[in-house]
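Many introductory courses stop at the sequence. We go one step further.
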Amino acid sequence: MKVLIPGSFDPPTNGHIDVIQRASKVFEEVIVGVVVNPQKKSMFDVSEREGMLTEILKDFVNIEIRSFEGLLVDFAKESKVDAIAKGLRAMTDFDYEFQMAQMNFNLADFETIFIPASPEYGYVSSSMVKEIFSYGGDVNALVPLIVVERLKNV
């Protein structure tokens, strides 16, 4: 079974990596879809985000990193995946992701599989990482080392 894990990954966090690695143990193929959203100001451009994820996940032979713009379901069709997988941290994530799952099913008959965050990452988000870093806080426990290094160069 081939699954798509979409996200902005701006920047990739340990929570993202945990969900992706766990999915790679369950599914034959995992496509990590890095969303390009021209409406959103990203800290890292799409090629930087793809590059960080590629480096972090280089030892996983069944994971492919690709970027996309537009509707998730169109990218899912193009990628010939069997399902979409989303990580969930809390009930607030579930409320939003459940609605998106229903919309994706309605638009293109795609099932969504939810993967709960590991307890140690349930509170980690890219926006929190960016905020903590912007105030000089230590993000070493929240993101992979390559991300820490890239944050220092922003």
